[in-house]
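User: Teach me something about this protein's shape.
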Amino acid sequence: MPAVEETAVAEPKKRIDWEKATNAERLENVNKGKVAIISHAMYATRDKLFLNQPMTQDKMDKTIPYDVATGKPFMGLNNALLRTFANGNGYKSNDFIEIKDAWKLGGELKSYKGITKEGEPYDKKPPCYRLEYMATWELRDKIDPKTNKPMTAVSEKTGRTYVVKERVDLPEPKLQTKSLYHISEFKGLDKSQFKERDMNAIKNYREKLANGIANGLPNLQRIGIEGVVADSLMRFINAQNKGQEYTPTQAHINMINKAQFQTQEKAQEKENQGRGR
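Assistant: First, the predicted structure itself:
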């Protein structure tokens, strides 16, 4: 596909049947979402995208995206893409949480009013970041042998009724995703239960990279990310991995300046058309 700075890639219109999809089809779907995150952020944030500004190691570490329920920081490509996701959606921090953990902390996911193409209103969910992993087991509804229906129970903490799950081992690994939401997308979260960023995890990750135990550089071309943006992402990830300062290249600055100029031209053209010129 063309480099992402040359064309806007929208979310895939054709939805796949996730349960019937192969691991390869699932991965392709997830990767398209990653490209869409970058394309959206490039359009929505313009010069405010984090890749466009120098960043010290200290600022990198203090703002690294992390899971507030566990304190776990996200490294590698997820680190860069979660920053991009936050920028593109106007979030003021890089603090995320899985929905199941948010429920445990009393959180309720917000909804927004949307309009279909037919003009019908509907409740629209907030954007989420899909984090893929290979599952060797999964949770399925526990069936009541007497009724042959899923068993339910009531949470003592929240009073909510939920379906009881049981662990089932899979015959072969299956690609699955976790949905990460920004903490601002929940009402009622008990923030006193949030954990601080685990800085030791960052230190340990860097030690593994230095010792050749882990490989922190992704294959962006395989995902569908190319060109100047791909180069900048790789440079940022490498700087984060090594604990170094990040500085955008002149090629990246030129790309941003070109995008700003094109935006100004289109705005001026639209204004002139409105004046009847």
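Now, about its shape. Residues 182 and 199 are 20 Å apart (CA to CA). Residues 1-12 have pLDDT under 50 and may be disordered. If you'd like, I can walk through any region in more detail.
User: That's plenty for now, thanks!
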